Amino acid sequence: MDSLVLPLLAAAPACLLIAGGLVPASLADRHPRAMRAVVVWLTALSVAAAAATAGLLATTGSVDHVFWAAPAPLPLNVGVFVDSLTAVMLLLVSFIGLVIARFAARALEGEPRQGRFFAALSLTLGAVLALVVSRNLVMLTAAWMLMSYGLHRLLEHYPDRPWAIWAARKKFLVSRLGDAMLVAALALTIWHFGTADYAALFAEADAIRASAAPLPPVLTVIGILFVLGAMTKSAQVPFHSWLPDTMEAPTPVSALMHAGIINAGGFLVIRLSPLVSLSHLALDLLALVGAVTALFGGLVMLTQTSIKRSLAFSTIAQMGFMMLQCGLGAFSAGLLHIVAHSLYKAHAFLSCGSVLDAAAKTRLDGKPVVGATQAALALPCAMAIAAGGAAAGGFITGIDPASKPGGLVLVAVMAIALTTLVWQSLLAGSWPVALGGIAAAGGVSLGYAVAWLGIERLLESAAVAHAVGPASPLDIVVAAIVVVGFVGMFALHAAASTLARSPIVRALYVHAANGFYLDVPARRLTARVWGLTTPVP
């Protein structure tokens, strides 16, 4: 009986929330208060169960439990796979789900369709939790599709808003493409390995990695298919265009998407990292697309006038950077990014109204604060301070970036980010501000190093790839392209203020404000599939 406690604790919240999501919409709308109370209490229960699961896991170690298995030779069973990665994601998803459910209870008070909203929210959260605890690829794929269905219901909550329906339809097409990638990868995996169970697959992957035999081409195809499926869920270029168009959905839905569901692609890659990391080509593709997405999202974000669209492109950029980390083999850094971004973005969306109120009271005088000479000296000083801060964080914590997958690239990107922080503080023309910026840079560097080290220690016993093998020539080329791209982005940002009147910069601003028109093909496809005459609502 004791051996069932942890598996049941891990599985129960997902099952209960999915059951809550199966309540008919008409019945839920007739009893909105009851539906709301049930979902809030279920999310609270999921937090408690996740905490208990994490506590038991610390004493029992990883658990791979089967509740039911189909007769041989069918590779089908139902169970849970619980390790430290599972525990972290259970705590994260449950906590954010509780916060969003409580916020929605107040935000949707009095709306006629709030009952069905909470039913859809329950279904979606349950599917995400099922995805996290799945013990095989069949369960993962089923939970993946159920999660997409629940999100589709949430996006269509306001049927009288044309843009809401339009965004849901565009997301529907992208999700079906991702489903196709995942199903194809599942079929090839079962065909090649004869199983869909994580434990067996990861053991086979470790054996292949330890051998000197050439990698079978089918494993490269499997890795690329899983990577492409993850890209569709995490809004990577060119699968990103649905995300900025979902702003007509209720604010709790935006928070759920940007703080929760959007991370599913990253979780998929980290969960399957022992298998996916066998293919350097798949990881290089992920790193390159992630870097392009991060730079694209960051540039477009700066040109948006709507706070929600700005947050949407911020999410695209952050998901790109998270995928870049995974593509470099830094899966622990990718998980750290998921946790930090989820908590930040949930707060950002749920408090965006307060941000607007505060911004309305902020006075901007626009006066220059330093002269040309000081500005010229500030940049090299900032670069030196940032480089020292990035190095100090690793030195204090004992982290050797050269020994970590993708470590040197991530330290370079960290130094670029810290340079921006310190440079802006030096340009303020105030010693307190400058010293505060320098202190903040040091704190960020040290805090990130400590958090990265903590996540690495946490994942030591988890079924996550801890090494991706020696770098190939293509790996080195991709890493160099990534660093050059971030340096170029910094140079553009640094020169933007002085070149603001340049025709080239003005044209770039217009194109960036329109997302470089990358959503036009998706709009046309959506219009064609639904028989619309124009690619807009």
Low-confidence stretches: 364-368
User: How many strand units?
Assistant: 2
- How many domain units? 3
Mean pLDDT across all amino acids: 85
User: Rg, please?
Assistant: 24 Å
Share in β-strands:
under 5%
Residues in helices, as a percent range: over 70%
Sequence of secondary-structure elements: HHHEEHHHHHHHHHHHHHHHHHHH
Give me the secondary-structure category. Answer: mainly alpha
Major sheet description: 2 strands, antiparallel
Largest sheet strand order: 1-2
N-end to C-end Cα span? 56 Å
Shape: globular
Count of helix runs: 22
Summarize the structure.
This protein has 537 residues and is an all-alpha fold.
Structure description:
The protein is mainly α and 537 residues long. It has three domains: 1-135; 162-351; 369-498, no CATH class. 73% of the residues lie in helices and 2% in strands. It has a two-stranded antiparallel sheet with strand order 1-2.
List descriptors.
single chain, mainly alpha, 3 domains, two-stranded antiparallel ribbon, 22 helices, 2 strands, 73% helix
